Amino acid sequence: MNKSLLIIIMSLCLILSGCWDQQPLRNARLVFASSFDLTENNKILTTSDIRSLKGEVRGTENLQAANVFVEAEGNTLRDTRILMDKKLSGDFSPNKTRVLLIGDELAAKRELYPLFDILYRDPRSSLGAKVAIVEGSASELLKMNVVGEVLIGEEIYKLLQSVEVNTLAPIENVQSVCTKIFDEGQDFMLPYLSRIQNQEEFAVDVTGTALFHKQKFTGKILRGDEPSLILLLKEERKKFTRFSIKVNPDAINGQKYITIQVKRDKVQRHLHIQNNRLQSVTFDVNFDVIATEYPKNKLYSKKEIKELNKKISKSMTDCMNQAIKKIQDANSDVLAIGRDLISFHPEVWKQMDWENEYPNIPIKAKVNVKIVDTGIIK
């Protein structure tokens, strides 16, 4: 019996094919990050950061990671990919890409899906790559090469991870953006990067979130606390959500502000419909917060706590409504109110011209803040 089984297995080994679809890493040129810009002649400039190793070949201990930049100009991404293949000694391999950067001019003038079409069709594409908009030229930012001692691609990737965990920007990648591109009931926003100069060196900073309408960048950007407030309304709070709020304008400089961290949040969304028309939208927002810094002290006083709750609630209500007005001015439905109408009130949605009516719908939020913790001291 054992001999028969062995003969069958050996016979199968002779007729079964091996792995014919091999893509050996030794032949691949791994792309860590890519950028896309619109050129003066209305073409697409693609710049790719290819990770390589430099140093002696005797042992891995002396090898160091380095960037090699390759770029090409073409009518589409596939066109630029073909041209870049001619400039590389190995196979252009995008399956390890972590970051995709888009220049703000390209994002504003071209729709996103035609730009990304190749990424959704190529099985080797990294659908988990993070996507961000860049102020000015994305290529120039990518070709900064290093920030301090960190390679630029890795620096941007870790920076985006940091702002996501601090609820400063949404968690978006190539795959998640695709689902929103084709959803007529919602828009989206992406991290907005800028190149800033620190003394003699340049650094990368997330200066806000870029608002999209359908597939194009609107040119409007949420800045400061606005991205965090909108993400809280979307119930997308992550590990840390902190705000520094002026509560004592007449105090000395060091005692004007309180810093809070949101510990628990509850958001109730109300769509007010009458005669099969959406009349208004209101948000009832409740935050339990931790006071992480308050130089004026006196947090042992219930009266002080009550007064602070009132001041913080008013300040956050005003800021949140300003952020809502900004997304409406941009005609960017990042709160997915249209998606709620499609899902729960389809008869109302069918009667509305959402494109023209959304910016004028009264949308208001009311925030109620309660300090529930003051740290290890009162």
TrEMBL record:
InterPro entries: GerAC_N (IPR057336), Spore_GerAC-like (IPR008844), Spore_GerAC-like_C (IPR046953), Spore_GerAC_C_sf (IPR038501)
Gene Ontology CC: one annotated term: membrane
A single GO BP: spore germination
Domain Spore germination GerAC-like C-terminal, chain residue ranges per copy: 207-375
Record has Lipid metabolism as a keyword: no
Membrane topology according to the record: Lipid-anchor
Localization annotation: Membrane
Domain Spore germination protein N-terminal, residue spans: 21-194
Keyword Acyltransferase annotated: no
Record-stated family: Belongs to the GerABKC lipoprotein family.
Protein known as: Ger(X)C family germination protein
